[in-house]
TrEMBL record:
Stated name of the protein: LapA family protein
Keywords: Cell membrane, Membrane, Transmembrane, Transmembrane helix
Domain of life: Bacteria
Source species of the chain: Rubellimicrobium roseum
Domain Lipopolysaccharide assembly protein A stretches: 46-94
Amino acid sequence: MRLLKTAFWAIVAIALVTMGLANRDIVRLRVLPEALSDWLGVAPDLQLPQFLVILAGVALGLFIGFIWEWIREIPERAQLRATQRELERLRREVARQREAAAPKDGVLAAIEAPVVPARRA
């Protein structure tokens, strides 16, 4: 499995280096359209290698996707917390019921003690 993971990342690294070497040309990124920048008197342009623009676009897309997914999962996380609270409340109630139903004699209590399964984390 470790070999597969190393091979995968090696292929990704080779692909990124190849793309970087093939797209070394400098490109100009215009933040504003030319007419608007002339009207405002500001021309915030960036000159970057093309592969950085491509990689920044991919990284921005991944970031937006992660944020979108995190927001989409809010109801599922809330339901999970509510279910965990309910489970803990029910475990306490079962423990209280077992304690109330346990025999009062110490010897009988030791013999008839209910087996409680181990909790999973």
